[in-house]
Structures are given as structure tokens and as C-alpha cells.
User: Fold these one by one.
Assistant:
Number 1:
Amino acid sequence: MVSSGRRWLREQQHARWRLHCLKLQPLSPVPSDLEISRAQTPKAVDVLAKEIGLLADEIEIYGKSKAKVRLSLLERLKDQADGKYVLVAGITPTPLGEGKSTVTVGLVQALTAHLNINSFACLRQPSQGPTFGVKGGAAGGGYAQVIPMEEFNLHLTGDIHAITAANNLLAAAIDTRILHENTQTDKALYNRLVPSVNGVREFSSIQLARLKKLGINKTDPSALTEEEVSKFARLNIDPSTITWQRVLDTNDRFLRKMTIGQAPTEKGYSRQAQFDIAVASEIMAVLALTDSLADMKERLGRMVVASDKDGQPVTAEDLGVTGALTVLMKDAIKPNLMQTLEGTPVFVHAGPFANIAHGNSSVLADKIALKLVGQEGFVVTEAGFGADIGMEKFFNIKCRASGLVPNAVVLVATVRALKMHGGGPSVTAGVPLKREYTEENIQLVADGCCNLQKQIQIAQLFGVPVIVALNVFKTDTRAEIDLVCELAKRAGAFDAVPCYHWSIGGKGTVELARAVREAASKGSRFRFLYDVQLPIVEKIRTIAQAVYGAKDIELSPEAQSKIDRYTQQGFGNLPICMAKTHLSLSHQPDKKGVPRDFILPISDVRASIGAGFIYPLVGTVSELPCYIMFPKLFQSLWFMGFNKPNSLLNFSKTVLGQKKSSRWSLSSDHVVLILSLSFYNLQGLFNHLV
Amino acid sequence: MVSSGRRWLREQQHARWRLHCLKLQPLSPVPSDLEISRAQTPKAVDVLAKEIGLLADEIEIYGKSKAKVRLSLLERLKDQADGKYVLVAGITPTPLGEGKSTVTVGLVQALTAHLNINSFACLRQPSQGPTFGVKGGAAGGGYAQVIPMEEFNLHLTGDIHAITAANNLLAAAIDTRILHENTQTDKALYNRLVPSVNGVREFSSIQLARLKKLGINKTDPSALTEEEVSKFARLNIDPSTITWQRVLDTNDRFLRKMTIGQAPTEKGYSRQAQFDIAVASEIMAVLALTDSLADMKERLGRMVVASDKDGQPVTAEDLGVTGALTVLMKDAIKPNLMQTLEGTPVFVHAGPFANIAHGNSSVLADKIALKLVGQEGFVVTEAGFGADIGMEKFFNIKCRASGLVPNAVVLVATVRALKMHGGGPSVTAGVPLKREYTEENIQLVADGCCNLQKQIQIAQLFGVPVIVALNVFKTDTRAEIDLVCELAKRAGAFDAVPCYHWSIGGKGTVELARAVREAASKGSRFRFLYDVQLPIVEKIRTIAQAVYGAKDIELSPEAQSKIDRYTQQGFGNLPICMAKTHLSLSHQPDKKGVPRDFILPISDVRASIGAGFIYPLVGTVSELPCYIMFPKLFQSLWFMGFNKPNSLLNFSKTVLGQKKSSRWSLSSDHVVLILSLSFYNLQGLFNHLV
């Protein structure tokens, strides 16, 4: 009795973990990300899993340092209260990025390794394509990283590969279906759909559902009239309306636009199509927003891939592939457990685009982590882009889907970005920073804090307390740091704290961790910005005005007609996922600070029905090609390091070495490999970016 | 001392495993493959690993039932004598397949679970594409299967995904390089290749190797003349000679032929290209033939992707991506451990095409297994197609690459196939078998044994003893079975044994196991069929005459010119990998039995330089499109089940259920899923096959 009661307690109520933290001995100057990662030996992942209260049958180990966590845990701990939920967002960044991932990792290192508070970081999985898996950035950086970095960046546990497989299966089904409908009679199609197996013909349950949808109340395949057979057998997809693209996790510019179906076997039914980067697949957004296998299946089935010739949406379910997609994704749905440099737990799960999707890691990882940390613990997750985009989507899309209530927002700022907003010269990837950024300049900082103030106000719209985390660079002066913290608090931040995690790890973020703990204890008055039942236009206008500070919005005729169509199709009550530049609060990347009096142009509107959002494209089409038309190109910019020259330089210095081609020891096999990825190959494949 | 000595013994010399075998309770009639698989609970893979002598740090667990085995084991056990090496091959099959995989699995179940002899089965990983991961066949069948079947068929540990990533990275590098060379000056290219990093310009080691290859003896980037800069910077790839295709593990007919590079950013440099199925990538053949990470890197670098404008081969190394490819493949190189229905160990590793590649699982899996079973143990592996193709390639290509010496060949025959060779009516997928096949017909069997005799003689060319395994079907009569065994022995088989593994598991193959053990104890007089130093034409002729029984070969002008080119390029001394139909000993699928007096037409010749073979295409091009031009189409035929209606029916009966859409319980999450893969979707996507 006593022992089973004790076990019950242990299972239901998480006390502080007895976590064996890994010690850091930070070097100065700070070595490259890869050197730091490789210098630390991670704990065996099963040890970590045990330390944080996972049962042996709740994990599936992948190698020594990664494990998938089964969703059954949510059932076991369903009566356990959730921990505190903290979002890391940022001010409007320079093209170089301001360090949200490092703050996220640094904060959990501080909470768990230094304050002995249970905490979890939940991060996005990066695309492998643009950099062949060898890059810094998404895993954090400096002494605030997820390790091992190469496992994080290469394949992980195959989730993106599963998405690729599922996405492309659906793509193949679309074109093949059109071909068959174009080349076969109603009867032939029907005989294939409902074949006679050992003399018996029966509808499958997915087909019965389709009959119901079509208003045909019959269950005997032989009872359908000719007209009903035709209605049942033909999806009548209009090829010009296909929005479902093939994907690859490779940055292959020659697949941006192509003509497919040119083999004689395809009988002339060729059409123009494109490949997107795998993480741009709607299936990635579905993975990020789902909360169970059953829900994922529903969402996958709802995905709209085209319209039929009557303008009605055609879904994956109509194509009959929902089950196959779900089976391919059955392992990908389980979050991936890894650890920080200091041995604290991290989930890496899902990595949807931050523009055409919502840019947040998975709901499931957050939910599981919130149970594992226990009521007094913390889950820290990150939203892509500036707070005006990533945080707004986190609240209005992700929290709406999950039902989770955030307790605090950490808003990451840098002196560099603030100086830019204050009127400093433009910051460009690959070009050395101007003097204004490397020397003290109080006036620029003071003027630039308008952006910080605005982003704080945006967070406050949602009723959540804001802690400003100033990510300190070596060149920042005491006066600059003090000024930012002072102005942030004056603008309504709960607190504002300088952070030094990059150079010394969690120890450098202890003050931030204390401030977050205090803010989160105050209780949240979280509210959504808009009611999803509002018309699509109203929801867009609300975001544009309340968040971006626009005077109004302006819809192109195309956008208006799409809105009408989606509304008529019954998709009007979905939340909005704005596809806007992250380099300005407005639609114009060069408008820094807090732009005013602008009209936000909505050039087009698209929909991810399975993921569950409408995404308006902001700006003229010609401004957006690299964001929307060529996600790979954009993806490169974002992940590759061309907007983060430091990580690129770190990469080339470390991986390519002083001699630009150095030995990279693969610890797993104790074989030394010449990593022959010359700078040219990076540069060559991606030089369309510069 | 004593204890360390004992440990040494245990580590160096494998005694009989103390393996906990899983009990079978075979049902009659035999349920579907999936039902059988799901009714058995596999051992935890770490338990299995320990039972067979793997140390804890030699495995990387993937979930509960799969693990990767590290290559470091080969170093630890390098002084351990190898076990016996047994190949399972087959007679010329009907389009329905004759059961080589089930015999392979049944044989190890008998050896280990019933005779207490250490044994390992080494199998190929099947493509996931053609059937969305839901098919039978490659995992064995009936009570001779690898479990869990769905893990085997879905993703496994991601090896094929890694191949896809590496293959497509190389493809992207080719087109991008051509674009850059077409649009940039020598100087601009050179500056990208050898950039100034912090004011310093240096060649990487891969670039120094390239300089050496070009005969430029300089190490200072600034010392090159203009002409040398141009020579160094330009690969001058001739786009019309590109043989490297993109791949996907999806059966997507619209990607068979397409025009890529149509986005404005590609500046008009569009060209026609195609996608192949992922397992057709040369990287898969490299994975199957390599014996270490260093060797894999060399092979990947040697892969020829095109010719330059002077007709010289351009390699992956010339493109500078060797290291990146190797890094992407660093985990894929480790064999995957699974188990049979009776709990005996299996490696599943690599699955190259059996036509354009050699159709055998990996050298590394065999090498590791041969150490693990110990000197008295057995490793059983399978070769694709009939013995005239799969076995010939196993000996001349795989054994040549590995240096391993086979001890015995198991030749699988069925009464059904023999009747076909004896003049029985044609056997067609999807059409019920004619009476001749379901009723006793001694004459047809007697006449058909000519094919069996010929295949026995082929094996004897290599000096290896042959045991005939007659895979018994329910309709086979005692007289038929006895006749086959009698004629097989008269033809020189060491033994001939009826097998019942499909219906009762290893117990049904004990007699075969005893025969194999005895044959293998006799010592092998293995020899290659030809000397690789012979001219390409002579090697082709030797195979055609000695193996197929052709009178001679006839080269098309294209084939002759390719042979001349490869010889001139220095590739004349590679072994030969014939791309011939498996449905006849000749090039004509309808010529059954032992065709005579035919001239084997060689329509074209291609090369996989990294894998290390030349592959002549046999037959006129118009006969081969589905084999060579459309590997996906062929792949479908091969793996999908259209040539194995039983597995297709099993699939549809089990997965789709009596109602053609049934519930498929995903044990991992205890969630019941409607598997909505209707018959139509299979049929629809693949109906170009029938």
C-alpha cells in the first residue's frame, strides 16, 4: 500500500527533478558553436528521460542522444496540473537575427541548472535542405545550445522525411486521379473504386462518408444510378486550381518551376508545378498544431488541395489517402527529446514556416512538457520572427488550437537592433557593421526603443506580462544596457534584464530566470485579439491596426475574391496567419522603428484548411516572390546564415577550419572524415541570395 | 585474470547463443502476413542484441524493435573467424515470385530456433514509395517473416530518406554549377571557389587534389595563370550527358519526365530531367557495396554524374560535395537489426535495384553478421531475381567487392514455376491460375525441371554446392514433390528438400537447415566467372554464354561506343551488372525453360562508377522502358504485388478487411485508425501496370 501510494505520488505529482546537470567551463573568446557542442558529452537520453519522470515504456530511444516520447504520457498525467508557459519572442530584428533561440536555451539552463526549477525548452526542428545539415543557428549558439548539434541538424528522428513522404504521396494522388478521370469512363473508374473482390462489391467506410457528403443515401454499390456513379467516381479537379505542391528537404533552385507529366505514359496531361522546401508543407503545420493521432488524421483529411470545376474544395479525404498519410506520420507525431549543453531537457518538434505558416514548434511537445515539469515548473518555447508576427500567431493560432494559456512573454532585444530602429545605418548580411554599432551611441539606442515599446504594447494586448531580455553583445556599453532596461520598464515591461548566456551559459541568464519566475507567478489575464467568428476581412484589419499600427488595410481584387470564396466554402471562421516581412512592423522592410499612417496592402489570400488558418499575403506580389513563390529561396535566407553572417563565419571557420577544409571527427564511428564542403559549394548553391 | 580471460573469450569467440526464441502457434488456414506479424510480440531489441553478443555501446536503438549496429564491432572482432555464408537464389520465376525471402527467413528460424545453431538473415530494405509502406513481400511471409512488419516497411531507421537527401543534394549541385558557369566570368567563379576569408585565400584539400588532377602544381591561389584559373574553376559539364537523376521514395508517374529550371531566376537554362525511385540511386548501390565509412566516402566521390565538353567524366568529387554526401549517410551505413517471428536476428540493410544495380543487401551487414554468428554459425542472404541474374551478380560483384567466400547456395523452386517452364499455360498476375497448376501434372513438372537443372549448373560454375529448396504449395502432390527432389539431385544438387516454412515456420525448414549445414561443412571451391581485367565485351560475352546459354552477343552501335568511352576513361576493369529480364534465361520474357541458340542483344551500356560496375542493357530499348527508363514503373511491378497477387490479396484482405476498409490498430499509440487506403488508391496510382 505504502509503496504503491508512493509510486502514485511520484507519477502524479512532479517534485523537483533530481537532475544531474552537465558542468560548463566557458572559454573566452567563445569558440564556434560546433566546437562548443562537440566539447560537451551529453547524458544518455534514457538517463535524462528517467530523471524527468518518463517511464521506460513512454520513450522510444533513437541512438544515444535522442528519444521520441509517446503520447500515452498525456493520458497518464491528465490530472497533473500544467507548469508555467513562457513564450520567447523578439523585437523587429535586423537581418542578422537577435538571438531568440539562444535566449530560450539559456533561460532553461538558468532555471534548471542554476535555480533548480524544473524546466523544458520546446524548439523547432530546422530544415536540413538549405545547408546540408551543417549549420548553426536553430540549435541555439555559444554556451546556450542543444546538443549534439549535428544530430539536431541532420535527419533528427526523420520527422521531416516522413512529412516529405506524406506530402508527395498526396501530390502523386492528385495528378494521377486527374489523369484517370480524363482517360476513363465513369464505369471503369467506378469499377476501380469499388472493385469486386471474390465476387463481392462493398463500399469502404471512407466511401460511405463520401456518399453521404454527396447526398447519396445508398450502401449497395449496385444500386447507384448512372448519374450517381459519375458523381461518386469523379472529383473533377480543376488542374489550374491545384495548390498542393511537391516538396523536398533540399534547396534545389531548378525545381522552383517546372513542367511535369511529359512522359508518353502521361498522355499529354502535363502541367506546370513546383517543389517547395519540405517544412513549407501544410503537413508540417498540421503536425505543429495537432494534439492527438485522431486529430492529426482529421486535419490531414481536411487539407484542401484544389477546387473542382464547380469551385468546391477538394480534400485529401476526397482523394482517399487520409489513412495512408496518417500511417506515414504515426511516428513523426511523437516529440523528440534532446538536451541543452547543461543537460536540461529539450523537445525539438515540428518546424513550420514562420510566414506562410505560424512558425511555432508543436502543441504536443508543449503539452507533454507542461505535464512533465509539474505545476511549479516552466516550459519555454519560441515564436519565429518579431513579436508582431510570431507572437501574434502563437497567441491567436497556436494557443487557440491548444487551449493552453501563456503566463509570460520574454521579449528579446539587442542594442544593435535598437540602434537600427533609432536611425542607424542599414545592417546587411555579409557587410561589416558600421561604427555606430560597435561604439557607444546613446541617442540611437534611445530613439530605437520605440520599436521595443511597441512590441511590449503588442504583448500587453493579449494580457500577458512581458520581460525584456537584452541579449548583450561584447560591444554594448553599460550606459546603453542601462538605458534599454530603464526605457523597457517605463514602457510597461514587468522587468528588463541583460543576458549573458551566449558567453557563459545559464549562469548568464539567472537574473532573467528570476524575473520570469516572478512574472509568471502573478497569474495571466490572457485573451485573444479577435473572435474567429468575425468576417475574414475584420480579422485581418484588427491585426493590421492593433498589432502593426496600420491605418487600414487595402485588399486587391484577387484577395477579395479569395476571401469571398473561402467564406462561401465555409472556411470564414478560421484564424488568420499573416504572411508579412519580419523586418518591419509594416509591409515595407526598410521602414524601421514604428511606422505610422500606412495602409497594409493584402495582395492575395490563401488557406491551409487542415492546419486551420487563412493566410493573407501582405504587400505587392513582386515584393514577395522570395517569401511565397520561392519558399526555398526564403528558407535559405532564413536558416542558411546569409542573414546571420556570424553563424556562417563560425561554420566556415570551424567546419572548414583555418584551411577552409578541416577534419571533422564523427564521434559515432571514431572515423575522421574530411568534410569537403568547400565554401564554394555553400556559396555556389546559394549565391542567388546575395 | 581469470575473469578478464573469460571476458576475452566471450568477446572473441562466440559460443552458441543462449537465445530466447519466440514460440509459434501456427494457425490453419494461414492468416494474412499482417495478422501473423501483429499476433507476435517481438523481444526488445536491446535484449536480442545482448543475446547475440553485441556490447551496449555497439548498438544504437531506434524505438523498441530496431537498432543500428556500429561498425566498431568489426574492429573488436577482427580476429574472430567468419561463420558460414549461404546465398538464397531462385530458378527463373513466374511473375508471381517463388518465395526466396520466405525461404531465407524460414531457414534461419530453423537453424537457430530449432537446431540451436547461431544464424543471421541479411535482407534488403524495400522501397516505401510504391505502396505507401503498406505491403507484404519483402519482409517474408506466412510464418517466416521479419517483425514488426510495419516497422520493416515504413521508414525503418531512415536509410532510404538519407539516400534521397544525399542524391538530391548532388543533383542540385550539378544544375546549379552549370548555371553559375554559364552566367559568371572565370574570375567571379574563382573568387567564389577560393574566397578571401579575413584577407586570406587558401585552397582546401579537395581543391588541392583537383589542382593535382589538372596537372597544376601550385598551392598559392594568387599564383595561378588566367588559363589555370579557368581550368580550375570550370567543370564545363555538358548538360546533355547528365546521367544523375533526382529521386523520391514515392511512386509519382508525373515526375517520370519533366522540364526543370523554368523559373525566371534560372535564366532560361531549363532542361529535361526525371525522377527515379530512391532505391535506384547509385548511392543505394554504394551503400550496399561499401565496407567502411572511408570507403563509402571514396565511392561517393568517384560517382560519375556527367561528361564534360571534352568527354571526360565529371564526378561528385569534382563538384566538391563528397564530404556533404558522406555526412548525410553517416548513420545509414550502420546495418539495422530486427528479428524473425521466432525471435532470431535479422539485418535489414540496403536495397539496390536488381536490374540496374546488383540487387543484394549490404556487404557490411553480411560482414558483421559473419562475425556475430561465430565460426560454427550461418549467415543467410538473398539475391534478387533468378540465379542467372541475382546469384551471378552476388558472386561476381558483391563477393568480389567484399572478399567474402560463399559456402553454399540454396536454390528456391516451386512446382508452379517448374510447370510453367515445362510448357504450362502462361501465369499472369491478377488472373486465376489454370487447372494445370492446381492439379497434379507430372509431365509438366518433369519437363520444367530443365530450368532447375540449368540454374544448378550455373551455381556450379562458381564452385559452390547447391541445395534445392522446394517451396511447397498446398496444391502440390507427393509425386510432384518427390520428382523435383529426385531430378534436382540427379542434376548435381547436393540435396533437394521440400520446405513448409510458410505454413508452420522454422519447423517446416529443419530438413533444409540440416542439408545446408552439411553442404557448408564440405568446404567451398568458390571461383569468379571472369577476370575483371578482361575487356568489357569479353566479360559480357562470358556471362551471356556461360550463364544465360546464349550463342553470342550483339552490340548496338550505341553500346559499342559507350564501351569504347568507358574503356578510354579507365573504367574497363569493372565487373558487369547485366540489366536483363528475370522472367527468362534469355532476353525474351516469354521464352521459358532453357532457351537455346539465341543472340543476346546489348542495346546500351551504362556505368555506376562509384558503386563499381558497368551495366549493359539487354534487349531492344522498346522492350525495356519499364525496367530502365521508368524505374518507378518497374519498381511497382516488382515490389507492389502486381507480380505477387497473393500478397496483394493478403494486403487487401487484411488491411482493407472484408469490408475493404478495416481498422488497423497502431499498437504504438493504442489508437485505432481507419486505414483509408482504398483499393482504388492502390489500383489508381498503379493501374498503368496492368
Note: The first strand of chain B starts at residue 59 and ends at 62.
Number 2:
Amino acid sequence: MATSNIEDFEKGNAAFVEAFDQDTTGALAIPPQRKALVLACMDARLHPEKVLGLEIGDAHVVRNAGGRASADALRSIAISQRLLGTQEVVVIHHTDCGMLTFKDDDIRSKIRDELGDSAGDAADGIAFLPFSDLEASVKADIRIIKEAAIVDGDVPVHGFVYDVTTGRLNPVN
Amino acid sequence: MATSNIEDFEKGNAAFVEAFDQDTTGALAIPPQRKALVLACMDARLHPEKVLGLEIGDAHVVRNAGGRASADALRSIAISQRLLGTQEVVVIHHTDCGMLTFKDDDIRSKIRDELGDSAGDAADGIAFLPFSDLEASVKADIRIIKEAAIVDGDVPVHGFVYDVTTGRLNPVN
């Protein structure tokens, strides 16, 4: 087992608290200032706020493996739109994504081999949502969001591929 | 419909690209340097990387409405652990969370009223995962992660409540 990062995270948070402005940042209301929601991959090299120039309070950020429009992402988008007033969605996938490197059967076998048969049986029933074409995956997720019953059909949905080697967001049209 | 943010986001990205170091940041490998995964709420006031002092490349970040251990979050955690070597999970919920302000029936009615009956019918089948007690929701999600078949049972799972008025992470034990 790795040494825990918790001490470092607590030190990182102490420095953040030291610089935190309670009168401005600490007084922000719940609804995102820019009325936007970003759906992005969990990848460690993609910090959506930095990449888009978002300040604290600007936008909802939903992230998962791949930045996929999963049922859970749609749940989050519906809550964001109906209860907190967001009116725009930005989908960000990225180059060199781990989701390009495997198929469902690969991770199911790996789970069975490393965690045992009951884990393997559970994994056999799960779609892990890998993909083989970046632009196609962005387009597929935009379509899922636009067509989802619980998502507002009038809200624009934009797509980008983030290049992890240059920091650049390339639009997907 | 709101004016689109896209022009501003593209300007924000251009500034980010300008400052991006391709030799260091651009050369990072896929696996998170700190072998950690953070599961946090999508709230606009919670920037997990800033709050924890995470650099680009340090950790996977999974986010959804509430920072809940949904089936999709477990999918992401399994991919992170089995394919990309993370060995620690940090769950972050936060004060003044939107998820404290409604029940499933409230959002289902709102979706039906604002998006129509077919949207309402779809919403009736969805658990939106609101909660009424912050520490209890963190503990519940830690338990779900620890007990999930597809998650490595030996991996430590830590919990925090982020105070949006002070920037402080308060541990949940």
C-alpha cells in the first residue's frame, strides 16, 4: 500500500485556507456565475478550471472516467439545470486517454484476476464505457445529452478534445 | 437562453496554452503521480485541485451532483485502480450543498412541470441522491466504496466536508 497523501493534502488545504478571501469567495451563492456545466474526464492531467480559465464559483464540473454522458452525468446535469440555473454544457475528452487503451472484456478479466470471482461477476454486468475514437466519443456524448429526456433540449452542448501535450482545447464540430 | 460562454472559455484556454510547459506538464504519463482519486461534488465553489494543493498530473478527480458514490463513480474508481494504479480515495462533500435543499419528489415534479410528461416519467425512475445530513452522506459514501465488489477493499478511503465559507476541509471520522 502506498504511503497516504493525506498529510500533504491537509498541508495543501492549510495554504489554500490562508489565502482564501472569506468576504468575496466565501460569500458566493450556490448557482454557478457563468450558468455553465462542464463534463470532463477524470484524468489527472486535465484540470478543467485551469484549462478554461474558470474562477471559483463559475461553473459546475462533472467528471468521470472518459468524461462520458453516463446516466449519472445526466442526473447531475438535470439537477444543475432545474435547480441551479445552468444553461450551457461543455463536454471535454482528451488525447492519450486511458479509455482508448482497453475494452470491457479486458477490465472485466483484470478485475476477476485481481479481486476475485465475485468482483468479476459484478464487473461482467457493468459497461465501463471505453472508446476507440476521440472525436466520435465527444459527438456520441453530445448526442446523448441533447436527446436525454431529463435534460433541457434547448440548452447548447459544445464539445472539445483537450490536447494533454499542449494544453489546447480543440473544438469538435 | 444565456449568451454563450464559449468565446470567454476559448480566451481562457489561449492564456493557459501560452503559459503551458510542454517539456514538463506536456510530458506527464497517464497514471496519477500521487496514486490518488478524489470524489467530490460538482459545486462551482469547490475546486478540488486548488483546495487540496494538487498539481496537474497528481490525481484522478471524479465529480457529480453531491460527490456521491454512484454506480458511475464506482466504475471510474475501478478503472482508476485496476488500470492506472491509484491506491487511495478521498471523498469531499461540502457545506451549503444544493443536494441538501430538495427531495426526489421535488425535482421529479419540477422536471415534469418544466420539461413535460415524458421527461417527468423518465425522472420518476431516477434516484437523484439528495441527502439531509452532510457527515452522514460522507460516511454512507465511504461505506459504499469500501463495500463495492469492483473496488479494491484494501484501499484507504478518507472523507472530508469542505466549508465553502472558509476554504477549510474538515475530516469526517
Note: The longest strand of chain A covers residues 36-41.
